[in-house]
Design brief:
- The structure is a single chain.
- With 358 residues, the chain is of the alpha/beta class.
- It folds into 2 domains: 2-116 and 309-345, Nucleotidyltransferase, domain 5; 126-307, ATPase, nucleotide binding domain (Nucleotidyltransferase, domain 5), CATH 3.30.420.
- It has helices at residues 33-37, 44-66, 85-102, 111-123, 161-171, 178-186, 192-198, 216-228, 236-268, 286-298, 315-327, and strands spanning 2-7, 12-19, 24-31, 75-81, 106-110, 129-134, 139-146, 149-155, 275-279, 302-304.
- The strands form 2 sheets. A 5-stranded mixed sheet has the order 3-2-1-4-5, with helices on both faces. A 5-stranded mixed sheet has the order 8-7-6-9-10, sandwiched between helices.
- A hairpin with a 4-residue loop joins strand 2 (12-19) and strand 3 (24-31).
- The longest helix is centred in the C-terminal third of the chain and has 33 residues, at 236-268.
- The chain starts with a strand and ends in a 31-residue tail after the last helix.
- 54% of the residues are buried.
- The structure holds 5'-O-[(R)-(carboxyoxy)(hydroxy)phosphoryl]adenosine (KG4) and zinc ion.
Length: 358
């Protein structure tokens, strides 16, 4: 079974073909870094137009790389939300058009389910697993029970982890995209002890019951530190130290919230190999991966983190989620609407004041 995946929910245009032997036959990702760089963040209208401009070439390229034609496809999966709605509609309509022309199933994929199922594509990780989903738009702790079946245990009450990385990087004058650039800067810190002493940061929610997150206070603390540094004279050493302190704080907070969830996961679920999965763009961060590896090991769990090229947005994860859904007999009509907001666990109680990210 060959499935074409299409991803256009943020600033990556991507097309991929994946088969039921868990082979990624192609995975082309075109990042719109240049288009958004001047604005210091993703501009939805520009993103949508760029997807429109490039998607057809990428789909053709993905088929070529896989050495297949449209006739070899058994289905088309496209991200139909959550995300920037203009871009989502571009990918969704391209997917529907191909499915209609070839009379093959169309599968509407939740972008978050793409991140959630990546460990099954690469390593055939069995359900249930505990999932820390950390991306630019979401920060959640979930239990993945089955395809299409997730229990959301925790979520952020304000900013997402990736958003906090990006905003903090911007405050420090680092170029877009903030997360990876902040990690590079942190690697230049030569004295971690001095860094954390010079730039003390709060550990939001640490030690509290439950699994929720909050990052806006951390971002404000970064702002306060930056404002105390000599105006117009942000020294690279200071930025490296502040980046280090920020990243260490992030890793600690994420680990702390996951630790609560691990205790309860191990009590409530029986898994052959209890696994903590981290996925989403921020899971590319090596300090966070290290902290979570140590945390999982302390609880006799394994940590799964995707290979770096599958951490950030890509269509292979969308093709795979579509394939898993199709194998379960799930497919969608051409009347499926793009969802700007689309929770993985529709039954999860909203958090007071948490807005749309919950
Ligand atoms: O999953 P993703 O590619 O897009 C969304 O679905 O949001 O995640 C993008 C987020 C951005 O906030 C980006 O700065 C962050 O992931 N990110 C990182 C790293 N690489 C990407 N954050 C920290 N360290 C990284 N190495
Ligand atoms: Zn994503």
């Amino acid at each position: 079974m060959n499935i074409l995946g299409i991803e256009t929910s943020c600033d990556e245009t991507s097309a991929s073909v994946v088969n039921d032997k868990r082979e990624i036959l192609s995975n082309l990702v075109l990042s719109q870094l240049k288009e958004h760089e001047a604005f210091g963040g993703v501009v939805p209208e520009i993103a949508a137009r760029a997807h429109m401009e490039h998607l057809d070439t990428l789909i053709k390229g993905a088929l070529n790389d896989a050495d297949l034609t449209f006739d070899d496809l058994d289905g088309v999966a496209a991200t139909c939300g959550p995300g920037l709605i203009g871009g989502v509609m571009v990918g969704m309509m391209a997917g529907k058009a191909i499915a209609a022309a070839k009379d093959i199933p169309f599968i509407a994929v939740n972008h978050l389910e793409g991140h959630a199922l990546t460990p099954r594509l690469t390593d055939n990780i069995e359900f249930p697993y505990l999932l820390l989903l950390i991306s630019g738009g979401h920060t959640q702790i979930l239990v993945a029970e089955d395809v299409g079946k997730y229990k959301r245990w925790g979520t952020t009450l304000d900013d997402a982890a990736g958003e906090c990385f990006d905003k903090s990087a911007k405050l420090m004058g680092l170029p877009y995209p903030g997360g990876p650039n902040l990690e590079k800067m942190a690697a230049k810190c030569t004295d971690p002890e001095k860094a954390t002493k010079s730039f003390p940061l709060p550990l939001p929610m640490k030690g509290r019951k439950g699994y929720d997150f909050s990052f806006s206070g951390l971002k404000t603390a970064v702002r306060t530190h930056v404002e105390k540094l000599p105006v117009g004279d942000l020294q690279p050493d200071d930025i490296a130290d502040l980046s280090y302190a920020f990243q260490a704080t992030m890793a600690e907070v994420l680990s702390n919230r996951c630790e609560n969830a691990i205790h309860d996961f191990l009590k409530q679920y029986t898994a052959k190999t209890p696994t903590l999965v981290v996925s989403g763009g921020v899971s590319a961060n090596s300090s966070i991966r290290e902290a979570l590896t140590a945390l999982a090991a302390r609880h006799d769990m394994s940590l799964y983190a995707p290979p770096l090229e599958l951490c950030s947005d890509n269509a292979a994860m969308i093709a795979w989620a579509g394939l898993e859904r199709l194998q379960k007999g799930l497919q969608d009509g051409f009347d499926f609407k793009a969802h700007p907001r689309w929770p993985l666990d529709p039954d999860a109680a909203p958090r007071q004041g948490a807005g749309v990210k919950a």
